[in-house]
Design brief:
Structural class: mainly alpha
Strand content: under 5%
Order of helices and strands: HHHHHHHHHH
Helix content: over 70%
Number of strands: 0
Length: about 220
Amino acid sequence: MSESVKRPYHAPRRAVRAEETRRRILAAAREHFLAAGYAGTAVADIARDAGVAEATVFAAFGSKRGLLLAVIGAAAGGDPAPVALIERPEWRAMLADPDPVSALGRFAALTGATLARAAPLIAVVRAAAGSEPELAEMLREGGASRWADCRTLAAALAARGQLHTGLSVETATDILWAYSSAELYELLVGVRGWTAEDYREWRHAALVAALVADPA
């Protein structure tokens, strides 16, 4: 009698259900964090609205802080996939663009779209950071990660000889970092009421003027 051969177990429907559950949790969490802030949000309420057990939320995200971080990540990327911005195809295309004006236009559009989705959530983190050391650390880590992403673009421009003479990669990175901050977005779009298009066009022009050696 031949020995039975074990075949790998595939459960595509289970994976689809797990992804759908994750989406429901993230959507419910976003609504609660924006409405009630960090301290006012209970994981039990998120679980109820997502139609899952509270233990399921903790199993998927580890903690309320981990859940908020995942919500911000999903907002920044535009989908729940845990893929860093710098690894996404649109960011890779921006870095590979040989035209500095076009590359910075892509940067202005991509970061503007990211901020439109994520800036309100970053404001939730900032509001709670004074009394929640873990959230203060989240802000620092997020800022450092964004600076590193900006440095990748600055380094690409420098490697092609496209930065202003005497402008270091670090200074160029600081400029990109400042112009992609949630604080600037909130001031001009949130407080002053700029449209997304106005904001994108202004940042594009300002970045070209500040960084590019020969825009023509």
